[in-house]
Amino acid sequence: MQVSRNLGAYGVTLVLGLFGATGLVRGCKPAAPAPAPAKVATVLTVADQCTSMVNAERAARGIAPVSIHPAVQFAAESHAKYEAIASVMTHVSPNGARGGDRIAGSGYAWRAWGENVAAGQPDCATVMAAWMNSAGHKANILNPAFVHIGVAAAANGAGVVYWTMDLANG
Hints:
- The structure is a single chain.
- The protein is globular, with a radius of gyration of 26 Å.
- It is 45% helix and 16% strand.
- It has one domain (43-169): CATH 3.40.33.10.
- The chain is of the alpha+beta class.
- It is built from seven helices and four strands; from the N terminus they run H-H-H-E-H-H-E-H-H-E-E.
- Helix 4 packs across helix 5 (99-105).
- Strand 3 and strand 4 form a beta hairpin.
């Protein structure tokens, strides 16, 4: 914590006179460097991990990669958070909005969109395996029309993780 006060010339003289200028300077040791902050998993980290897995599946089949788009990512994050708060896996928001509505509401003018949701998988590898073992979810992941993606996970109070993957082409 840094505290600044204007002591004026007399105050500085008084402080230096009381403590001795040379002793004050000599007694100060440089502070030890702060430890590096611990790496914190973020929503973006989840999005990056899952998007890499999606693109690996697409590349194995000769399909162009998708990239994270901020508006599509926001739509996925918002819906995953809602699912976790409500403790329900659903494609429909409380106001009746579906994935396309949420993506458009985030500022993305889509021509095509798809959405995968899941609940209970602890990580990207597990949820991707589940989606790739489901014909409809797999079709969304491998749809060559999609060029943008957003992927998010949110846990409820009981630790159940809710997932939303939104895919779109604008």
